[in-house]
Each structure stands twice: as C-alpha cells, then as structure tokens.
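Input record (one chain):
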Amino acid sequence: MDGQAEMAPLSADDVAQFLIDNPEADGADDQQEQVPTDEPPSDEDTDESKTDDDSPDDADDESDEQPDPTSGRKFKVTVKGEDGADLETEVDEKELIAGYQRHADYSRKTAELARREEQAVEIVRAKVSEAQNHYVQQAQMAQALVARLAGLCSPEEMLELSRQDPAAYVAEQARQQQVHSMIAGLQNQWQQEQFRAQQGQQAALQQSFARCWGVLGHEGIDKPKLQHIFDSYSKYYGISPERFATLNDPAVVLSMRDAVAYRELQKKKTEVTQKATAAPRLPQKSNVPRNDAPDKKRVERLRSGRGSRDDLAAFIAQHNL
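The corresponding structure, as predicted from the sequence alone:
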C-alpha cells in the first residue's frame, strides 16, 4: 500500500505546488538542456551553414541592388547619313563611350600607319637619291674617260692636218664629231638625272613644309606669329635669320616658341619690378586703434547739460566749428 501511495499519479495542483516550493528545479532542467556537448558538429550542419553563407543568390541580390548608373543616360549625336546629310540620333552612354574608344583606337592606328609610311617613303627617297647621285658620278666619269681615250686633236692640230693631208683631216673630223656626240649624250643623261633628283628633293621639301604647317596650325601659329618667333629668337640668341629658311621640323619651331615666350616673360617681369620700385609708396596706415570713448562721453555730457567749458571747446575744435 505504501508503494502504491508513493507511485500514485500527481495532479496539476501538486506539480504547481512543487514548483512553488522548489524554484531551483525549473532552472536546473533548463541548464541540463543547455549543457554543451564535446561532440563536434555534424558534417551536414557544416555543409548547410556553408551553403547558406555561399549562396549565389546573395551575390545576385547585391548586383541587383547596385544598378549601372550609366544604363539610362541618353545623348543626342549628329552623324552623317548614307546620303551625306546630317542625321541626329540618340545613343546611350555605353554606346557613346564605345564609339569614342573605337575612334581613338582608329586615330592612333591611323597615325601610326602614317608615321610608318612616312618612314618608308623617306627610306625609299634616300635610296633613290643615292642611286641618282651614283649614276651622275658614273656618267661624268664616263664622259671624261671617253674624251681622254678618244685622243681628240686640238684646233691647231686639226688646222695643220688640213694643210698636210686633207683626206686624213676629213676622216678625223668625222671621228671627232662622233666622239663629241657620244660625250654630249652622256652629259645630257646625267644632267637630266640630276634635274630629276633636284625636283624630287624640292617636292620632298614642300611636303615636309606642308606637314610642318599642319602641326603649327593646330598649335595656333600662323605666318605672322612664325615670323615673330624667328625674329625674336634671332634677336635673343644671335642666330642669323637665313638659317630658318629651310627649317621644316615643327618640334624645333615649338621649342623656339617656348624659348621666346620665356624670354618675353622674363622681360615683362623685369619691367614690372622696375615700375613697382619707382612708383611712389602709399602712406602707411596707423595700426593703433582710435579711442572714441572720450568723445562719446563728452557729447553725452553736452547733451545732458552737464558739460564744462573744456568739453565745449574740445567739441568745437574737433569738428572745426
């Protein structure tokens, strides 16, 4: 019976009364439930946490939250249509930037190609000029050699031969005419080649002048400004103006312009310094602050009728009354 009484079921009131009488029991149960274990977390839990942390959806969400600020900007651009007329079209900023980059790349490649072509033309021109000079020298040497080997008679010898042997004179005269004709042909050939070489050099010089003027025009230098640069550079550095007649390098001209501008700036600085030194100096202002308190007190005494004769005299003297 006693055992059955001890094992009798508890009612809700008994449990509530037990918790009221023993408040530590509820906290102990919670602490027992929260006791950490020494077992490491399972791989499934770790994988799930990594999966949650490394979810690509988060990156997509972040990219969606940061839209491209240039995607919606539009610009109106005027271009040439197929018929050559101006056509206004609207492009976004990305397309505008891409077009500018293509244009810059095209300009760079075009300039590089033009530079290479110019170098190739200069090399070919130098080779042609060298060949022309060599040909002229060889033709002149051949002319002198033919005249020496022909053994031409002098006018005195021909006169004597005509007296002694008229038939031999006629034959010698015919031979000399053939030799002179050959020499004249050689001379004509090298003179023509020399003339062509001079024309080529003149054309190359004109092309170099045109390229030089193109660069100088882009820098805002026209003929009057160029003449001013030459005259000033000649005056400052003592160089004869005749040396600038064949100058066709724009880099040299631009360096001369900068040198002249520096000299003129130094000259203006000297002139301004001299004028500032010779100018009359302004009177210096007194740094001692003016004390108007006695004057105010004097005026107040005069207004209130309590002023003395000295106050009145000082007021009259101050205001020149």
